[in-house]
Design brief:
single chain, 399 residues, 71% helix, 24 helices, mainly alpha
Length: 399
C-alpha cells in the first residue's frame, strides 16, 4: 500500500517503453526469460499482467474487470492509444486511488517538469484525471506551466489534454488571473477545426471571466470578440451557444472601461445575432436575444433596445438600416449568407432583410448585384431569390 502509487506509475511507464522502444539487447534478454519462465511473447504484455496482479493484490479487482470491459488493457498495448487507456485506468480507479492522489500527482509533476520528459503524453493523461482531486492554488500553479507548454504543442492530443486540464483549473476563481496569461494562445485555438477543442476553449474563457477583475484580459478582448463572431454560425449548436454567451460576457466586462476598443466588433455582431434571434434551436434564439440586447445597450442604441423588448424584430432591421447609413453595405453583405441557411426561418428573415435594405438604400441594384455574385458561387436559384426580395421590397414600400 505504501509503494502502490509509484509501482503503478512505474509499471505503466514500462508498458509504454516496451511498446515504443525495444533495444535489440532487451529483445534477446526477453527471449531467454520467456523460454525459462514461460512468459508472454512481448514484454509489454507481461507488464500489463503485472499491473493486473498488483491491482488484485490490493483487492481492486473491480477496476481490473471494468477496464477489461472497455478493452482498456488491449488499448494500453498500442503506442498511439496508450494515453487513452492510461486516462481510462485513472478514471476507473478514482475511488480507490483517492488516498494516493497527492503522491501520484507529485511523481507525475516531477516526470513532466524535466527538460526532455519521457512518457509525457500518458503522464499528462493521468495528471488531468487527478486534477479534480488536487486542492490548493499552490498545486494548481505548479500544474499550469506544464499545461501551458502542452497547449502550444504540435501534437493534437497534447493540446486536447492541456485544455481538459485548464478546464478543471479554470473552475478555481483564484486561478483566473494566471490562466488569463494564456488568453492570446487560447484565442488562436478558436480557429481549430476540432469542435471539441473549440468547445473546451470557450468553456475555459467563460469560467475565467467569472472573475470580473481580470486586468490582463482587456488587451485580448477585441481579438477574442472578433474570433467569436464566425462561431455564431457554427454547425455545432453547443459551440454556437457558448460563443454567443461568451460574447455577452466580454461586452459586460468592458462595458465601462475599454468600450472604444470593442465598438467595431459589437457593431459587426448585430446582424448575425439578429438572424439567430430566429434560430430553430430555442436556446440559441434566447441566448441571441439576450446578447443582442446587451450589444444595443453597449452601443447606447435605445431604439434597438426598445424594438427588441417589444418583440418587434423586423422593426430592428428598419432601425438598423435607417441609422447606420455608413454601414448599410456591410450589413447587407453580412445578411447575404443567410439566404442559403439550412434553416427556413433564417432564409425567410434574410429575404425580408434584403427588401428593407433595398428600400432604405433607395436602390435595388446593390442587392441584385450581391445576389448575382452568390449565384456565381453555386448558390440557390438567383431568379427565385430575386423574386422573393422584390416582393419583400414592395411590402416595405407599401408600409
Amino acid at each position: 500500500m505504501i509503494y502502490a502509487p509509484h509501482l503503478l506509475v512505474a509499471l505503466l511507464f514500462q508498458v509504454y517503453m516496451s511498446t515504443e522502444q525495444m533495444p535489440e539487447e532487451v529483445k534477446i534478454f526477453w527471449r531467454q526469460c520467456q523460454e525459462q519462465h514461460e512468459l508472454p511473447n512481448d514484454p509489454n504484455r507481461f507488464a500489463v499482467q503485472t499491473i493486473k496482479a498488483l491491482l488484485c493484490c490490493l483487492h481492486w479487482e473491480d477496476a481490473v474487470v471494468a477496464i477489461e470491459r472497455k478493452r482498456g488493457w488491449d488499448t494500453l498495448l498500442h503506442p498511439d492509444t496508450h494515453h487513452y487507456a492510461v486516462g481510462l485506468l485513472a478514471r476507473e480507479m478514482r475511488s480507490v486511488l483517492v488516498p494516493f492522489y497527492s503522491l501520484i500527482a507529485t511523481h507525475l509533476l516531477r516526470l513532466l517538469s524535466r527538460e526532455e520528459p519521457r512518457w509525457e503524453l500518458p503522464a499528462l493523461a493521468i495528471l488531468v484525471e487527478l486534477l479534480d482531486y488536487l486542492e490548493g492554488r499552490k498545486c494548481h500553479e505548479s500544474v499550469l506551466p506544464i499545461l501551458s507548454r502542452h497547449l502550444r504543442s504540435q501534437c493534437p492530443e497534447s493540446r486536447r489534454l492541456a485544455l481538459r486540464g485548464l478546464l478543471v483549473l479554470s473552475v478555481d476563481p483564484s486561478m483566473a488571473e494566471s490562466i488569463s496569461s494564456l488568453a492570446e494562445h487560447l484565442v488562436e485555438l478558436l480557429h481549430d477545426g476540432d469542435g471539441d477543442v473549440v468547445s473546451m476553449t470557450l468553456s475555459v474563457f467563460l469560467n475565467m471571466l467569472q472573475d470580473k477583475d481580470i486586468e490582463a484580459f482587456s488587451s485580448t478582448a477585441p481579438k477574442l470578440a472578433e474570433a467569436l463572431q464566425p462561431l455564431f454560425d457554427n454547425d455545432n449548436t453547443h459551440v454556437q451557444l457558448l460563443s454567443i454567451r461568451l460574447f455577452q460576457e466580454v461586452m459586460e466586462l468592458l462595458a465601462e472601461e475599454g468600450r472604444k476598443t470593442l465598438n467595431t466588433q459589437v457593431h459587426q455582431s448585430l446582424v448575425p445575432l439578429f438572424f439567430h434571434l430566429h434560430d430553430e434551436n430555442q436556446r440559441v434564439a434566447e441566448a441571441s436575444r439576450e446578447t443582442l440586447l446587451s450589444a444595443a445597450s453597449f452601443l447606447k442604441r435605445r431604439d434597438l433596445e426598445q424594438v427588441l423588448r417589444r418583440e418587434q424584430p423586423i422593426k430592428f432591421c428598419d432601425c438598423l438600416m435607417d441609422k447606420d447609413v455608413s454601414q448599410r453595405d456591410e450589413h447587407l453583405h453580412q445578411a447575404l449568407p443567410y439566404l442559403q441557411s439550412p434553416q427556413q426561418p433564417l432564409r425567410e428573415v434574410a429575404v425580408r432583410f434584403m427588401g428593407i435594405a433595398a428600400w432604405h438604400m433607395k436602390d435595388l441594384q446593390p442587392v441584385m448585384n450581391a445576389l448575382e455574385v452568390m449565384t456565381e458561387d453555386n448558390c440557390p436559384s438567383y431568379s427565385t431569390m430575386r423574386t422573393a426580395v422584390l416582393s419583400a421590397f414592395r411590402r416595405a414600400v407599401s408600409k
